[in-house]
Amino acid sequence: MAPSQRDKWWNGSKELRTTGELVSGGGLAGAVMTILYVVIGMAIWSLVGYGLDRLLGTHWIVWIGVAVGAFGGFYLVYFHMKNGK
C-alpha cells in the first residue's frame, strides 16, 4: 500500500518527490516551487532576450523574454496541477 502525501511529508519518509508532485501537492513546498518556476523562467528567458538585444542592437527584446519566461513558468505550474492528481 502506497503512503499518502501526509505520510511522505510529515512522518519523515525519505522517499524523493518530483517537482511536479510538490507543485500539485500544494502547501508551502508547492508555493515555493511555483515561485521558483516563474523566477527561473523569467531569469533564463530574460538572459536570452538580453543576448538578442546585444546581438541586434535593440533594447526591448529583453522585456519580451521576461514575459515569455513568466508565461512559461505559470504554464508549467498549470501543467503539473492539471496532470498531478
The average pLDDT score comes to 81
Beta-strand content bin: under 5%
What letter string, H or E per element, gives the SSE order?
Answer: HHHH
CA radius of gyration is 17 Å
General description of the model:
- By secondary structure, the chain is mainly alpha-helical.
- 79% of the residues lie in helices and 0% in strands.
- The protein contains four helices and no strands.
- It has helices at 5-10, 19-25, 27-56, 61-84.
- The longest helix has 30 residues, at 27-56.
- It is elongated, with a radius of gyration of 17 Å.
- The two termini are 18 Å apart.
- The model has no long low-confidence stretch (mean pLDDT 81).
Question: What characteristics describe this protein?
Answer:
single chain, 85 residues, mainly alpha, 79% helix, elongated
Sequence-ordered SSE layout with sheet pairings:
Layout: H1 5-10, H2 19-25, H3 27-56, H4 61-84
Helix pairs in contact: 2-3, 2-4, 3-4
